[in-house]
Design brief:
It contains two helices and no strands. The protein has 91 residues and is an all-alpha fold.
Length: 91
């Protein structure tokens, strides 16, 4: 069915995007730690400090986006899951 394939692709796209953001955050946090060590070792550097700020903003925004995602089970057609008081609102 076209709906099912489109739905599967939509869920897959969300999962790929979530994984991409999580991976980016991990690498940017590692990079920030390295930049902060460099700043401590050699002193203030405007380029390093700007990079740290940009990375921190990206990580903050990405985490906000990740936490705001709609639970995947809410994307399924009616009948493939149940919305009861125990599962509603859970990820």
């Amino acid at each position: 069915m076209l709906f099912d394939r489109t739905q599967d692709q939509s869920v897959e796209v969300l999962e790929v995007e979530r994984n991409r953001l999580q991976n980016s955050c991990k690498h940017l946090q590692r990079s920030n730690a390295e930049l902060q060590t460099a700043v401590q070792d050699v002193g203030p550097d405007p380029d390093f400090e700007q990079a740290i700020e940009v990375h921190q903003n990206f990580v903050f925004d990405s985490r906000a986006a990740l936490s705001a995602q709609i639970p995947v089970q809410w994307l399924l057609p009616t009948g493939e899951h149940s919305h009861n008081s125990e599962t509603a609102g859970q990820n």
